[in-house]
Amino acid sequence: METLQREAVYLWYYFDVQFRQIFLYWVLGMVVGSAVSVFLKEQIHDTMCSLGQRKIRGKGVCISSVLGIVSPLCMYGTIPIATSFSKSGVRDDWLAAFMMSSILLNPQLILYSAALGTTVLAVRIVSCFLCGIMAGLCVRWFYKGRSFFDFSGFEEPKSKDTDSNLLLRYIKNLWRNIKATVPYFLLGLILSAVFQRYVPAEVMTGLFGGNETWGVLMAATIGVPLYACGGGTIPLLQQWLWEGMSVGGAASFMLTGPATKITNLGALKIILGTKRFCLYLAYSMLFSFAAGLLVNRML
After folding, report:
1. Rounded to whole angstroms, how far apart are CA atoms 229 and 232?
2. What is the residue range of 9's domain?
């Protein structure tokens, strides 16, 4: 009994320390994320639709990637919205840039990631932005004159933010945000406490550090099964960085994780078909691995 009590005290200590370090970022992420969803979603939608009416050439891919990052939608929300973009005349390469960066990042996750430090935060934003751009350029180069997406059967979803009172609309959105993120946030903290207590630091250093190529490859690989929610991975990433994970490894994990999240894959398979879905997976893994190696060379 004493042993169990002692272990519980240790686990609570690790949990509490990391909770205090991350809690503020989690709260800010939800507050800002809900604000973007309630007050800016329509503006983002209108801006993206208007791109189809402008002659902006190569700039469209860059603008679309930025709009994808600031979009608060999940992938199942992004696809029906992308359907309306396509009907508005937005090109497939611009849609690819928007959807790729939207998968990888959103305003809420940006604030969560601030808990990892300014360097990792900057790497995450830049790598996601470039990943969106490259996805758009690949569609432009290899699918020129051919359709890349199949949006048949998708309609624009009904918004849940319909309350006429703006304050109530925001509060309801925030409450849905809290319910959706709390389980994963707490699970991430619990897993991090377990790692700190029972997994020696040298094991993590050997897994993610040492040989940079091996560490990046392992980070890219482990991101596939472990990534369930962006907020839930922040405590784990913070702990792994403390114990020797390179910034490039973290970048690779932060790219492959959301790109291969099971709910995202299920949605993408519907609109891509088998061949293009496999191309998407190959692109995501190769880009994340290359980005991780490049970040390690630069930092």
Report:
1. 5
2. 2-298
Query: How does DSSP classify residue 143?
Result: S
* CA 6 – CA 272 distance, rounded (Å): 52
- Between CA 192 and CA 226 the distance in angstroms is 13
For the chain, the residue count is 299
pLDDT tens digits, 78-95: 777 777 787 777 889 999
How many domains does the chain fold into?
A: 1
Express each pLDDT in 244-297 by its tens digit. 888 999 999 999 988 888 777 877 887 888 899 999 999 999 999 999 999 999
Element housing 147 (H / E): none
Q: Which of 81, 98, 104, 80 is nearest to 139 (CA)?
A: 98
* Angle of the 201-208 helix axis to the 230-242 helix axis, nearest 10: 100
pTM of the predicted model over 0.85: yes
